[in-house]
């Protein structure tokens, strides 16, 4: 055969094949090519290969398969390739936010993969689909309807462990998720000094999550009457009964009222068992307001949260009244340990603590910021244990105190007072498997079997104690003048300035960035 004849034959045979395939696909969509990749098959290429796109069916064909009423949508989707589903989504037949709903529980990873492609191709950069943001091998069933929407993957954060640290006679590893070099090493150094003095003792002085709705009345007089009723035994009892009917864990502890013009604010405070408790208290508050509305039909609930709570915003009310767990953590460090481990003196530490953490923060007009870097340690533990990271705003409020103690004042008495540690071991991000692994490591995962609330309280005690370690280490480094040196050596990214790779062993001068 001549070469021209050969070309002709091959061209015709491909066209023939295409026509045949089309006929088969129309007649038997379930046998059609290509077979879609199964969601959890481990297929790593988000892009369809050229062969597959060659066999892409028309929009009309895909719609006919998708909308076939004799089988569930999830089964129809299993007959379509990723590219074909993307075509349906781009056509508006499937909402991008609802992919998980139509795919069903056993195709969640596929839903995420397809969303990545759709969003990526619609974006200016087009990078998401092939980016290094991971999405495979993640349990999206725990995320769905609980933790996140429009999911395109997950963001890994390095997890380090400081310590162990002895807290109330028990040793705990301190899990810290962070990208700040020196933070874990510095906290570990603080743990070493604390352990040498026998460890940390904690006291829980309060436990109550709060919600503060804003309620409008026609006049200040009427708002005043409602305030007086809530403050009376009768009003308090009526609201408590309604509030506590919503959960066996919610026990109303206090009601604090305040008026501005004709608007009334009521700060509900309640125990929430092992949950951080925002959902729980919102439910209780809603029910209590329904009961109040019967008594004051003229009232108008403007918002369940009227910022008198105060959630995720700086506020003096939290610092003064407390929110979540209120914890004091305290320790004594022998003078010789201050010298050998912390490389400073009791006198220098106490002096610096007064001038920096107390006077400096007072000069800056701080509310609850009488510390060196409580937020650093707290946020790293929050991320590791599935807490709501935005609550670091009030949870990090902390006053660090230091004074000489013992014979001739040669030892150091150190404490942190943290009135607003908002944590839970059930609900929220604590349902995710990796975060549960961290809670397991601490022995505080889930609901406490005998005493509801004790797991969350223990976690708060551990956090306050770790903050104490962080405070000690940073203050010591500042007192000894180690801060800049340590950061220059160990906290500068080497990635953009390639140099010989030298393994780093944290030394005494390690401190975190503040
Ligand atoms: P949050 O109120 O922190 O937002 P969720 O409402 O998501 O948390 O989770 C609390 C749920 O867990 C509630 O439905 C509650 O009934 C349940 N639960 C089970 N055991 C406990 C416990 N020991 N403490 C608190 N809640 C618990």
TrEMBL record:
The kind of enzyme this is, by top-level EC class, is oxidoreductase
Entry GO MF terms: hydroxymethylglutaryl-CoA reductase (NADPH) activity
**Per the record, which residues fall in region Disordered?**
25-50
Q: InterPro entries recorded for this chain? A: HMG_CoA_Rdtase, HMG_CoA_Rdtase_cat_sf, HMG_CoA_Rdtase_CS, HMG_CoA_Rdtase_eu_arc, HMG_CoA_Rdtase_N, HMG_CoA_Rdtase_NAD(P)-bd_sf, HMG_CoA_Rdtase_sub-bd_dom_sf
Identify the Pfam families for this entry: HMG-CoA_red
What topology does it adopt in the membrane?
A: Multi-pass membrane protein
State its location(s): Endoplasmic reticulum membrane
Q: What's an example GO BP annotation here?
A: isoprenoid biosynthetic process
Extract one GO cellular component term from the record.
peroxisomal membrane
Q: Which UniProt keywords apply?
A: Endoplasmic reticulum, Membrane, NADP, Oxidoreductase, Transmembrane, Transmembrane helix
- Keyword 4Fe-4S carried by entry: no
Q: Provide the reaction this enzyme catalyses.
A: (R)-mevalonate + 2 NADP(+) + CoA = (3S)-3-hydroxy-3-methylglutaryl-CoA + 2 NADPH + 2 H(+)
Q: Where is the composition biased (Low complexity)?
A: 29-47
Q: What is its main location?
A: endoplasmic reticulum
Q: Kindly tell me the pathway this chain contributes to.
A: Metabolic intermediate biosynthesis; (R)-mevalonate biosynthesis; (R)-mevalonate from acetyl-CoA: step 3/3
**Transport in keyword set:** no
Q: What is its EC number?
A: 1.1.1.34
Q: What Gene3D superfamilies does this protein map onto?
A: 3-hydroxy-3-methylglutaryl-coenzyme A Reductase, Chain A, domain 2 (3.90.770.10), HMGR, N-terminal domain (1.10.3270.10), Hydroxymethylglutaryl-CoA reductase, class I/II, NAD/NADP-binding domain (3.30.70.420)
Q: Which family does it belong to?
A: Belongs to the HMG-CoA reductase family.
Name by which UniProt lists this protein: 3-hydroxy-3-methylglutaryl coenzyme A reductase
């Amino acid at each position: 055969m001549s070469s021209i004849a050969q070309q002709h034959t091959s061209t015709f045979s491909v066209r023939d094949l295409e026509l045949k395939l089309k006929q088969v696909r129309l007649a038997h969509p379930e046998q059609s090519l290509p077979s879609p990749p199964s969601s959890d098959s481990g297929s790593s290429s988000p892009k369809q290969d050229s062969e597959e796109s060659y066999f892409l069916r028309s929009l009309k064909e895909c719609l006919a398969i998708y909308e076939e009423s004799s089988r569930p949508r999830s089964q129809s989707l299993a007959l379509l390739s990723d590219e074909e589903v993307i075509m349906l989504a781009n056509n508006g037949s499937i909402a991008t936010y609802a992919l998980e709903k139509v795919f069903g529980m056993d195709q969640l990873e596929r839903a995420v993969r397809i969303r990545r492609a759709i969003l990526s191709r619609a974006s200016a950069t087009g990078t998401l689909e092939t980016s290094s943001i991971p999405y495979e091998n993640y349990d999206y069933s725990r995320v769905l309807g609980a933790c996140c929407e429009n999911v395109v993957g997950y963001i890994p954060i390095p997890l380090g462990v400081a310590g162990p640290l002895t807290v109330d006679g028990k040793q705990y590893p301190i899990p810290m998720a962070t990208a700040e070099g020196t933070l874990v090493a510095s906290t570990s150094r603080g743990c070493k000094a604390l352990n040498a003095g026998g460890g940390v003792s904690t006291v829980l002085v309060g436990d109550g999550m709060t919600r503060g709705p804003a309620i409008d009345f026609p006049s200040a007089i009427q708002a005043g009457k409602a305030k007086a009723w809530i403050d009376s035994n009768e009003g308090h009892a009526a609201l408590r009964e309604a509030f506590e009917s919503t959960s066996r864990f919610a026990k109303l502890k206090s009601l604090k009222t305040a008026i501005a013009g004709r608007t009334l604010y009521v700060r509900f405070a309640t125990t929430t068992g092992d949950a951080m408790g925002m959902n729980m208290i919102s439910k209780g508050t809603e029910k209590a307001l329904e009961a109040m509305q019967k008594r004051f039909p003229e009232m108008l609930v403007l918002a369940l949260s009227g910022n008198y709570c105060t959630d995720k915003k700086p506020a003096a009310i939290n610092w003064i009244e407390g929110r979540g767990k209120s914890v004091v953590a305290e320790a004594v460090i022998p003078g010789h340990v201050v010298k050998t481990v912390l490389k400073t003196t009791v006198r220098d530490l106490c002096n610096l603590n007064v001038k920096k953490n107390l006077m400096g923060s007072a000069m800056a007009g701080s509310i609850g910021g009488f510390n060196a870097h409580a937020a650093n340690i707290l946020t790293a533990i929050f991320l590791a244990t599935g807490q709501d990271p935005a609550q670091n705003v009030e949870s990090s409020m902390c006053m660090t105190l230091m004074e000489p103690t013992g014979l001739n004042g040669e030892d150091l008495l150190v404490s942190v007072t943290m009135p607003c540690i908002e944590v839970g071991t059930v609900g929220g991000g604590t349902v995710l498997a990796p975060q549960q692994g961290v809670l397991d490591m601490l022995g505080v995962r889930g609901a406490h079997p005998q005493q509801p609330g004790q797991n969350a309280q223990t976690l708060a005690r551990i956090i306050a104690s770790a903050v104490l370690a962080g405070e000690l280490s940073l203050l010591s480094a500042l007192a000894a003048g180690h801060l800049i040196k340590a950061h220059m050596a160990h906290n500068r990214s080497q990635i953009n300035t390639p140099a010989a790779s030298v393994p780093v062993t944290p030394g005494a001068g390690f401190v975190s960035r503040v």
